[in-house]
Amino acid sequence: MLQCTSWLAIAKARFPGAPPKSSPSTSRSMPANLRLLLEKHGFDFLEPLCQELVGQPATVLDDEEYAERVVQDGWRRTPMQMRLLPPETLRWNEFCFALRPRVFDGSSGTVRLRPNWRTAAAEVAEQFGEGAAHDSDDASAVALLDEELGPAAHETAEMPRGKRASGSEQPAAADEHAVGIDLGTTYSVVAYVDHQGRPTSVLNSNGDVLTPSVVLFDNEGTVVGREAVLASTLEPDRVAECVKRDMGNKYYRKKIGGESIPPEVISSYILRRLRADAERKLGKVAKAVITVPAYFDETRRRATMDAGRLAGLEVLDIINEPTAAAITYGYQEGFLDRSGKVQSDKPMRVLVYDLGGGTFDVTVVEMSNQSFKAIATDGDVRLGGKDWDEKLVEMAAARLTEAVGEDPRHDPETLQEMSIAAETAKKTLSERAKTAMYVSYRGKRHKVEVTREEFEEATAPLVLRTRTTAEIVVLQAGLTWPQIDRVVVVGGATRMPMITHMLGELAGRTVDHSVSADEAVAHGAALYADLLLQKKGGGSGHTEFSVTNVNSHSLGVIGIDPLTRRQRNQILIPKNTPLPHSAARRFKTFRANQPNVKISVMEGESASPESCIEVGMCVIQGLPSNLPAGWPVEVRYTYRENGRLQVSASLVGHAARVTTEFVRDNSLSDDDLMLWAECLSAEAKRAEW
């Protein structure tokens, strides 16, 4: 069990009862992250505290009481990023005691705020912020993040298809390890490639292959995995689960302990746990390939990479989950064998049906000698085994409501217990025709029986959604079902008989269950990580293959239709285009001396912008002041092989250089990422101590 000091525990940190001897002008300056936070949040968190002291006896300004009333209470009200760092590192005690003579006046026997106290407080903060230097240990973690998190603003040469860009050109050390991580909605797996070139799963500290993707933010520490699940029925408001479904959003769907937390940060705790498990087996692990659903859009892909970096990992690449599963299947079938074990002029066409805990993908992959080429993909990032669980919860809730006269789901603890019981019942119904869910409500234990037939009837619409997607992908690939050679299933939810039955009927052949439903994605990611490591002189030396992916969403820009004068999404890179791929579009300045050009970048298939997802805004800055109206600006969009977007721009027929900033919607800013990186790094070091 990975257990780190959470912000709730940090809030209880010991504060000296006396003011510090050093002064802001003579001691080393406050780390940059605190100054940035003070600049960003102002003194909103301190003002109510200061006002509460007004009218109190002047004795509250004495050292001991002031330390409790201002230093400690003030710390509890600070933004979360500050509370993740040790107060001693931030010199919070010094800062608060430096505020005391500048902000409060107790000369009359009661506390008053001095005139212009806000200005005085800001001046104290400025004194503490001068120089703003990081400790050397923390700066390296921030520098690693800063290297790769900035918006892509430079044009790069298009890479040959079937090749991958590596995350760094530094050669790999002989004993360096890279892992593959299946960062799942409900469960996660980490794997590596051994010295014989075999992908192998890493057991976690509980001795299990699967680690529940659940995080508990407890008073005593942050807990990931099985223990978090067990505690979730008692403290549901402190538990984050199914975080993957919130990737790409600014914050996790609910507050945790009263705090809004970005999903990247929560996911980074899961990744840190997986990394710790891998290091217990392999030694130091700093590099990883992380898998994502094929249908993840660009914003979700970036968020996943950010989570990896926040976990202290160098993310070599991200890879689509069905593609990773196809690599594992190819490995088992001998397609990765250098001796040419599998030789055929005709590629094998494999449909990978991936129904995980929270997401669903279908991809058609062509396999030939050491080559994997995706030709069509589709999916649903909000459909997975969890939806089958929710149907069972609905069934149980309906029956319990009849028995007790009210919906038990209104109680958070009961709802959490029902969710856990539903997952167990779903698994049982894959093996048996009947099961029971046991739920405690208002001090009484209730039994709800469910049959497989009832379950399949209730979830038939969900199965139909996956069937329709599979049919669409085969059509988009330009194939018919007889032209599909194998139907391979991965993801724990594919164990349900209703899935196997539907696919067998649709494809007209037996469904292939030869790869591990739980481990295939992580194993494929590990093989791909080993391949990338080999290109740097490391790895097992046994892995050799190429991968070509396709984009799961069309990329477009918003323009004005010349006929209707209405906004229209103009598609530049259609869905299922082999990656990498670049497309250029010319725009004209609207007026003379226009300082910049702003272009909305969309993902989606519709001509209507309202039916698409806005990925972000491309802002072209630095246009020359003498530029006339109607001057062409060329913008080039490049989908990289991992589905990430890169944007560059140039003035047509003009020597002036322009800068391009791609502002992504709902993504953490670079400043916030740097702050979170330093906070999480400091927390990890405290856990080691």
Q: Mind sketching the topology for me?
A:
Elements (H helix, E strand, L loop, with lengths): L2 E2 L2 H4 L21 H10 L5 H7 L9 H14 L3 H4 L3 H4 L1 H12 E2 L6 E2 L3 H13 L6 H14 L27 E6 L4 E7 L5 E3 L9 E2 L1 E5 L2 E4 L1 H7 L6 E3 L21 H20 L2 E8 L5 H13 L3 E7 H13 L14 E8 L4 E9 L2 E10 L4 H20 L7 H18 L4 E8 L2 E8 H7 L1 H17 L9 E5 L6 H11 L12 H15 L11 E3 L6 E6 L6 E7 L7 E8 L8 E7 L9 E9 L10 E8 L5 E7 L7 E6 L5 H19 L1
Parallel strand pairs: 4-11, 11-12, 13-18, 15-19
Antiparallel strand pairs: 1-9, 2-3, 4-5, 5-6, 5-7, 8-9, 8-10, 13-14, 14-15, 16-17, 20-21, 20-23, 22-25, 23-24, 24-27, 25-26
Helix pairs in contact: 2-8, 4-7, 7-8, 9-20, 11-12, 13-19, 14-15
Structure description:
With 689 residues, this protein is α+β, with helices and mostly antiparallel strands. The protein folds into four domains: 3-133, no CATH class; 177-340 and 518-540, 2-Layer Sandwich (Nucleotidyltransferase, domain 5); 385-458, Alpha-Beta Complex (Actin, Chain A, domain 4); 555-657, Substrate Binding Domain Of DNAk, Chain A, domain 1 (Sandwich), CATH 2.60.34.10. The protein is built from 20 helices and 27 strands. The strands form seven sheets. Strands 4, 5, 6, 7, 11 and 12 form a six-stranded mixed sheet that branches. Strands 18-13-14-15-19 form a five-stranded mixed sheet. It has a five-stranded antiparallel sheet with strand order 21-20-23-24-27, with no helix packed on it. Strand 25 (632-639) and strand 26 form a beta hairpin.
